[in-house]
Amino acid sequence: MGWCVFLILVISGTVRSQNCRGQEPRQRACENVCDDNGVCKIRAALLLPKNTTYNACLSVVEPVFELALQDNAVQEVFPSWLQFEWMSYDVQDCDAAYAVISAIDAYNDCAHVFFGPSCDFALGEYR
Question: Which segment of the chain is annotated as a signal peptide (predicted)?
């Protein structure tokens, strides 16, 4: 039994992990909303297609979120020292596989909140 544990330790020490794209894993040192300099920022990921044939696409929804953040009612809810950073991710043609990959990318880019993907709903235009 001891040799089995030894073998696992030797193998795990020599094998390097990579993600599905062959990239080295990234360190995530961004769990907190406020950084060491006292800057507090919520990173919001918007996961929608760039393809404008969908009613809910990046070019339509992004300006709506930006406009909503400028509204007095929304500004009164959040403290003045809190900033928002929008990060947009293309869910190519509303494919579920791209949605998962985009969500993982957003997580790796330190997103705190996710909006989308909304592709499971009937958002495409009818022809």
Answer: 1-17
In a domain, 97, yes or no: yes
- Under 8 Å between Cβ of 124 and 54: yes
The torsion angle over the Cα atoms of residues 93, 21, 108 and 85, rounded to 10 degrees, is: -40
In a domain, 7, yes or no: no
Q: Is residue 77 a part of any domain in this protein?
A: yes
Q: What CATH number does residue 45 fall under? A: 3.40.50.2300
Q: Which of 78, 99, 81, 80 is nearest to 90 (CA)?
A: 99
